[in-house]
Design a protein that fits this description.
Order of helices and strands: EEEEEEEEHEE
Number of domains: 2
Strand order of the largest sheet: 5-6-10-9
Shape: rod-shaped
Strand content: 35-45%
Distance between the termini: 68 Å
Largest sheet: 4 strands, antiparallel
Number of strands: 10
Radius of gyration: 35 Å
Length: 154
């Protein structure tokens, strides 16, 4: 049978096996030495003593307490779009090559260069290549294309 014991040192409630009444044990929280109390009204006789040569350790349960418990869950970091550096927010810009083709001329390099110069080198966090497919509306064919994803402060 189990009995509740309150640690005199840390005030945590422990549930221990009462069959070992009168024996000392250590509080798992504060390591204080406690004694398992006697049962007040034993309804079931205690089990017979273990045979010689074997020792049985008392079984402990999860301690219960009335004190507030420290939270182990920490707040998540803010998303990248909300991170601030002074007045500047982290932003992204995607430039696709298909949007830079005008009258048979591929102006992708010029448009990327112009955008990077516009935001300034000190504000660039990263430039990443992207590959994607899209459906051509005229021919209904899937076309592979590329572009860049620019992460910057602005």
């Amino acid at each position: 049978m189990e009995v509740a014991v309150i640690c005199s040192n840390c005030q945590n409630e422990l549930v221990v096996d009462s069959s070992n009444a009168g024996e000392p044990f250590e509080c798992p929280h504060c390591k204080a030495q406690l004694v398992i109390p006697q049962q007040e009204n034993p309804s079931v006789p205690p089990p017979p003593p273990a045979s010689e040569g074997t020792t049985e350790e008392p079984h402990y349960s999860v301690p219960l307490t009335q004190k507030p418990v420290e939270s182990l869950i920490q707040k998540a970091l803010p998303p990248l779009e909300m991170a601030k550096d002074g007045e500047k927010t982290i932003r992204i810009k995607t430039i696709r090559r298909s949007e830079c083709v005008e009258v048979g001329k591929d102006l992708f390099d010029q448009k990327v260069t112009a955008f990077l110069q516009q935001i300034g080198e000190k504000n660039i966090v990263g430039v990443h290549t992207v590959n994607y497919t899209h459906q051509d509306m005229a021919s209904k064919a899937l076309l592979a294309d590329y572009g860049v994803l620019v992460v910057y402060k602005g």
